[in-house]
Amino acid sequence: MERELETRLRAWMEGRAESRWLEKCQWELAEPHPETTQLESVRADIISTVEFNHTGELLATGDKGGRVVIFQREPESKNAPHSQGEYDVYSTFQSHEPEFDYLKSLEIEEKINKIKWLPQQNAAHSLLSTNDKTIKLWKITERDKRPEGYNLKDEEGKLKDLSTVTSLQVPVLKPMDLMVEVSPRRVFANGHTYHINSISVNSDCETYMSADDLRINLWHLAITDRSFNIVDIKPANMEDLTEVITASEFHPHHCNLFVYSSSKGSLRLCDMRAAALCDKHSKLFEEPEDPSNRSFFSEIISSVSDVKFSHSGRYMLTRDYLTVKVWDLNMEARPIETYQVHDYLRSKLCSLYENDCIFDKFECAWNGSDSVIMTGAYNNFFRMFDRNTKRDVTLEASRESSKPRAVLKPRRVCVGGKRRRDDISVDSLDFTKKILHTAWHPAENIIAIAATNNLYIFQDKVNSEMH
Amino acid sequence: MMLSKGLKRKREEEREKEALAVDSWWLDPSLPAVAQAPPAVASSSLLDLSVLKLHHSLRQSEPDLRHLVLVVNTLRRIQASMAPEPTLPPVPSPPAAPCVADNLLASSDAALSASMASLLEDLSHIEGLSQAPQPLVDEGPPGRPTGGSPPNLGALDLLGPATGCLLDDELEGLFEDIDTSMYDSELWAPASEGLKPGPEDGPGKEEALELDEAELDYLLDVLVGTQALERPPGPGR
């Protein structure tokens, strides 16, 4: 089944300056890819993770079918300046296959939970991909030349009969069509009993960590047969279990620091210099429960679904069910900023519990300058918050509601009372269309939005032309 | 939802569908009702919804631990708010169980106790369903008390014998501290002793316990916290 990733929609946003760019949000959709076809939604095609590499030149997606698709940004062409920023499929490969654990008699899904790029060290690119149990290191290399004219081998690589070799020649490299080769370099298996939810490459570029529901392991990128357990919150008796690890990440600059979030809404910052086993956190970031909003769902909605350090390393961004929060590493008592993502769902928590939506794990992302944050919502909506102007916008990633070159308007969800034209009521939100995975280009205003089995790439027109 | 593949699990899923056919409509993503996030269904309550979620989650060969822990903690919160004592004993002891149940039913809050009775009924109904497809219902899993006075139903019994064999030992422990003593009333007797795959309106149903819609609505309000809770949730946090 051909995936719908080919459907690439580009949008240009008009904005004057970085700090004011949310004030004018006009998204214009470029022509869809000619191969666009309406395909049946298949479970295996559902995108499960999106990740830019460190330069933003490459974008990787993983899906529930265990595949990884890498997109490459087209180099700028003088004839068509607008084409810069278009991402085209660069390589597709099967990263994980469904497996069966015979000891425990259970299936291991092939679904890619997370992808992380390694900093580029040479001409090749490398990435880590993980499913529930096994992390793999992949190397992506290009080849556009092939050697010709060997003395002892023929064109198919078979050894020649030495008696036929009468003269010697110098082999030459001949250009050929570009080939992208992806090869598995390492398989880090058997390190996790529970489901891996996060992987994070350390700034030392030599180690990475992997977190599951109860433990975090530290690995060396070159060593697959051992890892070091750095966090273990598994109680001696599982009956005492009340909390799980939901996400984890290394500090972008300090290789000894990492943070992990929990299902109880707290963040723990750990320093690996303090002890080999970081069961005791260095800092605990936690906001007291608001008594006015207390309900049976308080804990579920405060469960942190994603945590991301800012590029500067000064702040942390967390997402829970209804809000996105910015924490200062120097202030543990409460977040410095809290943004409501879809507060109108607060009165619908019972239904959302009933249909399990309340357990959805939304991710969050920083822009390159840490001034804007982005996160997903339901109905194919995603939200952006400008930290300086305190403005926010709701946008929709949907082909149905947009035509090529049409302006994509900011959307509004109305909560009772007055309803403007084009507003959508809370009751008509489609809870099966959720944007869980988003990514922001590390330097430019280009964002990638995974909406079920579609990938949308939007770009800020003004800022892209300045480059 | 952690749907799985493979022969063994497929069989479980089928059995599960059979078992929960009546009450599990929200587990079926193909139904439009699920997609539309319907308003709270009056006939259901948060408590038995949570128990059902637990039940469903545990039937996965490898439960989603985050989902499980959050549901269990929610269940603890609900129970803490319902229990007559502000603090919930971490592990219910068998002799204490009937007293707790008595206290519950003798509670001065008539509406709540009536609602509780309804919950109990719902739960016995759930168990009845879960046992329906079991081929050897009379034997039960080893260790399960059979016959005699109403057994002290541990959390796992509550969840039905079908789950027992599939469970990781560690996960069973998760629910030991959930006080299920409130279910140890005589209401259980017809369903748990007889172990009959009774129909929906089986022998466990007693007309006296039926509630009118207003009471159920009140209960739902209490459960979702729109009404003031009697006491703060204790051990859940």
From TrEMBL, chain A:
The keyword Oxidoreductase does not apply. One of its GO terms (molecular function) is protein phosphatase regulator activity. The keyword Repeat applies. Keywords: Repeat, WD repeat. Belongs to the phosphatase 2A regulatory subunit B family. This is Serine/threonine-protein phosphatase 2A 55 kDa regulatory subunit B. GO terms for cellular component: cytosol; protein phosphatase type 2A complex. InterPro entries: PP2A_PR55, PP2A_PR55_CS, WD40/YVTN_repeat-like_dom_sf, WD40_repeat_dom_sf, WD40_rpt. PANTHER family: PROTEIN PHOSPHATASE PP2A REGULATORY SUBUNIT B (PTHR11871). Signal peptide: none annotated.
From TrEMBL, chain B:
It comes from the Eukaryota. One of its GO terms (cellular component) is sarcoplasm. InterPro entries: E2F-SERTA_domain_protein, SERTA_dom. Residues 39-86 form the SERTA domain. One of its GO terms (molecular function) is transcription coactivator activity. Residues 132-151 are annotated as: Disordered. PANTHER family: CELL DIVISION CYCLE ASSOCIATED PROTEIN 4/SERTA DOMAIN-CONTAINING PROTEIN 2 (PTHR16277), SERTA DOMAIN-CONTAINING PROTEIN 1 (PTHR16277:SF12). This is SERTA domain containing 1. It comes from Canis lupus familiaris. The gene is SERTAD1.
